[in-house]
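Figure 3 (text version): structure tokens given as input.
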């Protein structure tokens, strides 16, 4: 029997608290590293051979996101309800994938299931696509023998989230594109056009009008310190990446973002919508309330909500209810939300009430998105007109007073 060759692998994994950790492990294969990490209670995110050019396993490759994940889940539900086995359904769906990495991912999940691994555990190998919420729904469905119901709940929830996210993205696309175009235009004018006018006016001598002098000064500063722009961009990106799992920093950022007019309200309600919708589905699927509130906070995308989870869990562990703890965070969970939760708990229909909360928030977000879209279009047009028009006027002001400019030389 040939002797196994051990290699050094580096890995990135996540523990039960959601914290990332890095390390190295000596093992015959990357698959065995994944298995060992899972046995130790970690969720592997990336495993690669040290010194290798490419990752042996990269769990971000071929990820299915947003509407695609909702469609995949709906297709799985349809086929399982029709009596097709899980492995056969995965085989059929993998054949439809154009992305080879996505096809490989689905085939790997199928292979693991054929080896005896539960569907939920097989999905856990790809946390970039199938997060803890997804895995928990499936695990609960497996334990109760109602996997088709778990898939249906997941598909419905994902479709609602994808729909509302699509509306927000659509509303913001135009303003973002216009803002980027306007910024590029202004930078182009300051970099290339203003210096030419400056050279022309300098040859004439005389004193430039104040607006023109301000424009020339801004152009000179930008040309001299242009490198600060990419440094700021890279620094901002690096800061957010480094603080991705820092709940204290994330909470402060969320508080600032939620305080913005209109857009802040939309982002806050979007987080509340995801929280209510996920918590409703988890509780309806008989997921433990302690786990359900944690899953809901993760699904919300709000680090502020994740930060208050321990306080909520501590309250539930003492036998009290959500209505006893949500009012302690009125800026995060508005009184209307807390009141509706209280009503649902007292009536013994919390999942149904949470579903109603999510539906109400969906309608409010839709109205605010339309309002935001209309307002931003008007504001952007005014700002672009004032900024670009002001620059053009400032550039040509000396020409209008050219005789005075020449005579002053």
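Below: residues designed for each position.
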């Amino acid at each position: 029997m040939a002797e196994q060759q051990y290699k050094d692998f580096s890995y990135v994994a996540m523990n039960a608290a959601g914290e990332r950790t890095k390390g190295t492990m000596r093992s015959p294969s990357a698959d065995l590293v994944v298995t060992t990490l899972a046995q130790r209670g970690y969720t592997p995110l990336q495993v690669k051979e040290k010194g290798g050019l490419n990752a042996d396993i990269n769990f971000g490759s071929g990820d299915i996101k947003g509407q695609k994940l909702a469609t995949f889940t709906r297709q799985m539900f349809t086929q399982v309800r029709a009596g097709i086995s899980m492995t056969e359904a995965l085989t059929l769906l993998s054949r439809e994938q154009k992305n080879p990495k996505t096809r490989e991912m689905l085939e790997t999940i199928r292979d693991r299931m054929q080896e005896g691994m539960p569907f939920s555990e097989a999905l856990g190998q790809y946390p970039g696509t199938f997060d803890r919420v997804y895995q928990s729904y499936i695990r609960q469905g497996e334990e109760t023998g109602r996997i088709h119901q778990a898939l249906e709940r997941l598909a419905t929830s994902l479709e609602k989230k994808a729909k509302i996210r699509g509306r927000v993205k659509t509303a913001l696309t135009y303003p973002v594109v216009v803002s980027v175009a306007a910024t590029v235009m202004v930078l182009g004018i300051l970099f290339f056009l203003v210096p030419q006018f400056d050279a022309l006016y300098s040859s004439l001598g005389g004193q430039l009008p104040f607006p023109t002098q301000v424009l020339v000064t801004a152009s000179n500063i930008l040309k001299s310190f242009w490198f600060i722009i990419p440094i700021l961009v890279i620094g901002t990106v690096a800061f957010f990446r480094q603080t991705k799992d820092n709940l204290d920093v994330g909470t402060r950022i969320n508080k600032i973002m939620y305080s913005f007019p209109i857009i802040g309200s939309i982002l806050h309600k979007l987080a509340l919508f995801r929280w209510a919708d996920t918590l409703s589905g988890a509780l309806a699927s008989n997921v433990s309330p302690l786990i359900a509130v944690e899953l809901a906070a993760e699904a919300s995308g709000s680090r502020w909500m994740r930060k208050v989870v321990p306080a909520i869990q501590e309250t539930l562990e003492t036998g009290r209810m959500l209505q006893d703890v949500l009012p302690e965070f009125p800026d995060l969970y508005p009184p209307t939300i807390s009141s509706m939760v209280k009503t649902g708990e007292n009536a013994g229909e919390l999942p149904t009430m949470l579903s109603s909360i999510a539906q109400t928030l969906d309608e409010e977000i839709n109205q605010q998105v339309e309002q935001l879209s209309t307002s931003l279009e008007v504001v952007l047009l005014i700002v672009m007109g004032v900024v670009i028009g002001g620059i053009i006027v400032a550039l040509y002001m000396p020409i209008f007073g050219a005789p005075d400019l020449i005579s002053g030389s």
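The beta strands are 7-14, 20-27, 43-49, 57-58.
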